[in-house]
Amino acid sequence: MSHGKQFTLFSLKPGPNGWHVAFILEELGLTYENVFPNLDVTAHQGPEDLVKYNPNGRIPALIDHGNNDFVIWESGAINQYIVDRYDKERKISLAPGTEEYYTQLQWLYFQASGQGPYFGQLVWFAAYHPEKPQSVLDRYTNEIKRVFGVLEGVLSKQEWLVGNKPTVADISFCSWNEIITTTVLQNFNFEKEFPVTAKWHKKILARPAIKKVWDERAKLLAQG
């Protein structure tokens, strides 16, 4: 490790997915170096320096130098790998093999399949697509609100998604929720429309490790 860190994390400064991996690493006190490849979000193929680690050509991808330079990509799989291997005290995760572990996994799958793609599609059509078809914008906006409704229904009955404590499942939602509610959705009041979910989100965002990483992102974006 020439940089002296245990992990190399390929990420994207404005995008959410690499940052919620960084959240997990920071929560567990694991050292890592962020690498930001020259990724054109409108391109169909990633740059060579990323494709050699992730054949999908997208971020995030993680190299674990403490485990024979093992490479893993897809944020849900990365987060699961990190907590399974390194969260031995179960600070932010549940023990493998337990029922709660599979509930945690359920929420990670929901984040990856139910939150990320729909939130990302709204960003694409709102910010990058040459046309702005209102029917498409409405579809993804409504789907985002549906996802928030799922979270609201569950969190109205319990403080955290699983295990009566904040876990990787809760944290994995944070970066997309923050980006979509502060910079993308129009005429949207998070606290008014989904008060329980908004409160839950703010508690996660205020955690010292999460705040540290998100502040780092803000500084990088400010630098251009």
TrEMBL record:
<dbReference type="InterPro" id="IPR004046">
    <property type="entry name" value="GST_C"/>
</dbReference>
<dbReference type="InterPro" id="IPR010987">
    <property type="entry name" value="Glutathione-S-Trfase_C-like"/>
</dbReference>
<dbReference type="Pfam" id="PF00043">
    <property type="entry name" value="GST_C"/>
</dbReference>
<dbReference type="InterPro" id="IPR040079">
    <property type="entry name" value="Glutathione_S-Trfase"/>
</dbReference>
<comment type="function">
    <text>Involved in the oxidative stress response and detoxification.</text>
</comment>
<protein>
    <recommendedName>
        <fullName>glutathione transferase</fullName>
        <ecNumber>2.5.1.18</ecNumber>
    </recommendedName>
</protein>
<feature type="domain" description="GST C-terminal">
    <location>
        <begin position="97"/>
        <end position="224"/>
    </location>
</feature>
<dbReference type="InterPro" id="IPR036282">
    <property type="entry name" value="Glutathione-S-Trfase_C_sf"/>
</dbReference>
<dbReference type="Pfam" id="PF02798">
    <property type="entry name" value="GST_N"/>
</dbReference>
<feature type="domain" description="GST N-terminal">
    <location>
        <begin position="5"/>
        <end position="90"/>
    </location>
</feature>
<keyword id="KW-0808">Transferase</keyword>
<dbReference type="InterPro" id="IPR004045">
    <property type="entry name" value="Glutathione_S-Trfase_N"/>
</dbReference>
<dbReference type="InterPro" id="IPR036249">
    <property type="entry name" value="Thioredoxin-like_sf"/>
</dbReference>
<dbReference type="GO" id="GO:0004364">
    <property type="term" value="F:glutathione transferase activity"/>
</dbReference>
<dbReference type="GO" id="GO:0005634">
    <property type="term" value="C:nucleus"/>
</dbReference>
<dbReference type="GO" id="GO:0005737">
    <property type="term" value="C:cytoplasm"/>
</dbReference>
<comment type="similarity">
    <text>Belongs to the GST superfamily.</text>
</comment>
